[in-house]
Design a protein that fits this description.
Layout lengths: L31 H28 L6 H33 L6 H31 L6 H37 L1
Helix pairs in contact: 1-2, 1-4, 2-3, 3-4
């Protein structure tokens, strides 16, 4: 495979505008449709991160570019952090307010919050291992790195799937009740 191929890493959402939650606008100014759109954006960015990590895991050791590894290492924390900040400070309070009648909502949000802590910790470990791999400090253990990457993106994909299958429909039901 040509190692000069175009990089496949996800961009962070640093340029995302109009979402309100980072600008300090009150949560109530966010319409539910805009909230759903912002959630879908974060889920898509995280999905792209998973695809990029899978590409690295599949290509180790011979078909992986160091600059791709470093770009992913630099992007993991901002992608995960922005998504979690949005969910914990905007999405979860809106769900508690607008979807209070949903069965097991409090338990679901508590579980997702716990998964956020785990994901952030695991993301930091993945970042560290990718940087070490590029620096040549752990080049001999590519199987360990590939296994770690797969563990991270598999768990993140399950988290994304749950939010797409449960939280978005919950928000859509809340939108219909407002109409």
């Amino acid at each position: 495979m040509d190692k000069r191929r175009r990089s496949n890493f996800p961009s962070s959402d640093a340029g995302q505008t109009g979402t309100g939650y980072l600008s300090g606008e009150p949560v109530t100014d966010l319409g539910l449709e805009q909230l759903i759109g912002t959630l879908e954006h974060h889920l898509n960015v995280q999905h792209n991160l998973c695809c990029a990590l899978e590409s690295i895991a599949d290509g180790l050791p011979g078909e992986v570019r160091n600059d791709d590894c470093l770009a992913i290492a630099r992007s993991i924390h901002p992608i995960i952090h922005r998504s979690h900040v949005f969910e914990e400070t905007v999405l979860f309070p809106v769900l508690r307010q607008r979807c209070a009648g949903e069965a097991h909502l409090a338990d679901t949000l508590d579980r997702l919050l716990g998964e956020h802590w785990e994901d952030q910790s695991f993301a930091e470990e993945v970042r560290h291992e990718l940087v070490d791999y590029v620096a040549g400090q752990d080049a001999a253990n590519v199987e360990k790195l590939a296994y770690m990457l797969r563990g991270f993106f598999a768990g993140l994909r399950r988290h994304i799937a749950f939010e797409r299958e449960h939280l978005i429909p919950m928000l859509r039901r809340a939108t219909r009740t407002l109409a």
